[in-house]
Design goal:
globular; alpha/beta; 4-stranded antiparallel β-sheet; Rossmann fold; 24% strand; 7 helices; 10 strands
């Protein structure tokens, strides 16, 4: 699904923020991305969702090298990726419902199917009574849940989420993590950037640990999790 080989990234003429990054994510895997503030998590995520290209090294996505791809080819690959950004990036003139429905409309899904799937997912994330709200009138947590719903509604092949539970209470955060796990069981490869030790301990997945611009992989230790009914 994703392969990084000796990847480095710098901004302008400054020092490298990522150095000699090597890892492989198999299809259907689930990883947490963690590390101290400033370690480069957002930079690594931007490489994985094709927001930028590496300064050096080779990045392979879905079996294809992206280093020399032109914009149309990159756009085609991005359609297979769902992303939850820290700043949400909702369209302010669209309701919560229409923001979440947007990926399905781009894919040309029937409106009846869109209405059913979006309504069910908004109920699941606790926004069933707020689906006509516009983003400027939402709280930060409501915007975050809308952004997550939009990222997962089309069941992407790869889901990247940057601190998706950061502004949410524990129960909603757990429900959303369970949603991510359900997607993963259906075949979606998932990477979640988080500082939350609680979340990582509850859900026993390997960790990509960034420190000083380098990366190591840690296997999960003993973990305990609760069970909750899912939406998919």
């Amino acid at each position: 699904m994703i392969k990084f080989e000796h990847v480095g990234l710098r901004y302008g003429v400054g020092p490298e923020v990522l150095s000699d990054i090597d890892f492989t994510l198999e299809p259907g895997s689930f990883h947490f991305l963690t590390g101290p503030s400033g370690a480069g998590k957002t930079s690594l995520m931007s490489l994985m969702y094709l927001g930028r290209k590496p300064t050096r090294g080779l990045v392979t996505m879905f079996g294809r090298s992206i280093n020399k791809m032109e914009r149309p080819q990159l756009s085609a690959i991005r359609q297979r990726i769902g992303v939850v950004f820290q700043e949400f990036r909702l369209l302010p003139h669209l309701s919560a419902f229409d923001n979440v429905a947007l990926p399905l409309r781009i894919l040309g899904r029937p409106e009846k199917e869109i209405r059913s799937n979006v309504t069910e997912l908004l109920e699941w994330v606790g926004l069933g009574d707020h689906k006509m709200m516009l983003p400027p009138t939402m709280s930060g947590g409501q915007q975050q849940r809308t952004a997550i719903a939009r990222a997962v509604i089309a069941r992407p092949k790869l889901l990247l989420a940057d601190e998706p539970t950061g502004n949410l209470d524990d129960e909603i955060g757990f429900r959303l993590m369970t949603l991510f796990e359900q997607l993963n069981r259906m075949g979606t490869t998932i990477v979640i950037a988080t500082h939350s030790q609680t979340i990582m301990d509850q859900f026993g997945h390997p960790r990509l640990v960034l420190e000083h611009g380098g990366l190591r992989v840690e296997e999960p230790k003993n973990w305990i999790r609760r069970k909750i009914e899912g939406v998919f």
